[in-house]
Amino acid sequence: MRPSKACLLNILVPVKRAVDYAVKIRVNPQQTGIDTNVKHSMNPFDEIAVEEAVRLRERLKDQVKSIKAVTIGPPKSSETLRTALAMGADSAIHVEIPESAPSPEPLAVAKTLRAIIERQSKAGADSGIDVVILGKQAIDDDLGMTGQMLAGLLGWSQATFASKVEIDVEKKEARVIREIDGGSEEIKCRLPVIITTDLRLNEPRYATLPSIMKAKKKPFEKLTAADLGVDLTPQLETIKVTEPPKRVGGGKVETVDELVAKLKEAGIKAV
User: Fold this and answer.
1) What pTM did the predictor assign?
2) Which of 84, 96, 185, 219 has a beta carbon 3.0–4.6 Å from 89's, enabling a disulfide?
3) Are strands 91-96 and 220-223 parallel, antiparallel or unpaired?
């Protein structure tokens, strides 16, 4: 028996093009930011989010109607979306910004995602987003705020730092095991829900050549911030970016007395 349309899930997966995790980060000569003329790839936590969306469809069979990937970035970000499509997403939306534009701040990203979700809802009752799965943070800025801000803007349930996700479509409920200091926590959320992914959630699959070829034929929509009625102008100004001081080697001491003497020389006082 097939579930009714009201029981079908639409999943949205935001992804970000970031400097590849294996690249050694360097500050640019102008000291306005990092050198971005290096290899880029999908943010690793977002890869986990795409993988989890695909696994949910595999587990829930025909209860997942669609998986839509979305990114906000320069023209080259389309490569990141193609990767998401090759991994198993059904369609993609690229909110394109100029190559020279700064990376949008978390609040601007959250507002853009809210606009996309509202746009989907207006497209029809069976097109509304039920679950948003995204990485807990991007490895370039490490801010980790977009998911929480999006949940706040929408007034939706949220489950952050997820290490296990189960969804009961009929009950419209998500059960999430999340990482916390010293262990884990189990929470239940009503749909619609925002879920941010942690490292232990899964191991992302590699896109096969047939999947990469099929991805080229999947729906791919391009929009601008103006189309969605959002302003991506940064609210923060970066004054200067510099590298941290180089670490110097340590030294060895033979006795406790020698250690205490060294600490005193360094101006460190005993408590």
Assistant:
1) 0.84
2) 84
3) parallel
Unique residue bearing structure tokens 């360094």: 266
Domains, the chain: 5-244 (3.40.50.620)
Task: Yes or no: say if 45 and 138 are a contact pair by the CB < 8 Å rule.
Answer: yes
Handedness of CA 20, 228, 65, 12 (dihedral sign): positive
Which DSSP helix (H) or strand (E) runs through 265?
Answer: helix 256-265
Angstrom distances, CA of residue 258 to CA of 100, 249, 264, 265: 55, 18, 10, 11
In tens digits, the chain (271 residues) has pLDDT values of 344 445 789 999 999 999 888 888 888 888 877 777 888 899 999 999 999 999 999 999 889 999 999 999 999 999 999 999 999 999 999 999 998 888 899 999 999 999 999 999 887 767 799 999 999 999 888 888 999 999 999 999 999 999 999 999 999 999 999 988 888 899 999 999 999 999 999 999 988 899 999 999 999 999 999 999 999 998 888 888 888 888 887 788 889 989 888 888 888 876 6
